[in-house]
């Protein structure tokens, strides 16, 4: 049954708690707000919790320190000789802070079984498959961590190439090619880093 899309505003935390200054500006890191599109009450609650968890981490001094200690790749090319796209951690942090816009979040099954989530930079819309929402609610640490990783990863795809509104600034096509070092791509790197910090928060005593 089709119904007109319900748009409800969820939460909207604006990174109020953090006292880590943005680089150079003295501003607080701005985590983008989220609206939920056609989500059930249960999924809205999950979306609120996951968004809050991701934003708590992205606005933390620990995230900033670990993101800025290395450089990252903004994309990957099919041919190894063309790999030139990199960015310093400082520059990446500045871009995440400045250019991640408020977005909407949907839950929808993927057409391809391998696709966990998709992001439209033009619509500023992230769609995550229902299994990820359900995974968060099971309470299983690995599945919760997957959901945190997925949202953080997709949020990096919300950023457009400068002076456009429909081209991804950070891409991850060809990420399976050996010279693409998947973990150094911004999307996978940020997703993994947020997941790592989240897991540490759950168990601060683990090795
Ligand atoms: Zn991606």
Describe this structure in words.
The protein is α/β, with parallel strands linked by helices and 207 residues long. It has one domain (34-201): Collagenase (Catalytic Domain), CATH 3.40.390. It is 38% helix and 13% strand. It is built from 6 helices and 7 strands, in the order E-E-H-H-E-E-H-E-E-E-H-H-H. The chain has helices spanning 41-58, 61-67, 89-99, 130-138, 141-156, 186-202, and strands spanning 7-9, 34-37, 71-73, 86-88, 103-107, 117-120, 125-128. Strands 1-2-5-7-6 form a 5-stranded mixed β-sheet. Strands 3-4 form a two-stranded antiparallel ribbon. Strand 6 and strand 7 form a beta hairpin. The protein is globular, with a radius of gyration of 17 Å. The chain starts with 6 loop residues before the first strand and ends in a 5-residue tail after the last helix. Residues 1-26 have low confidence and may be disordered.
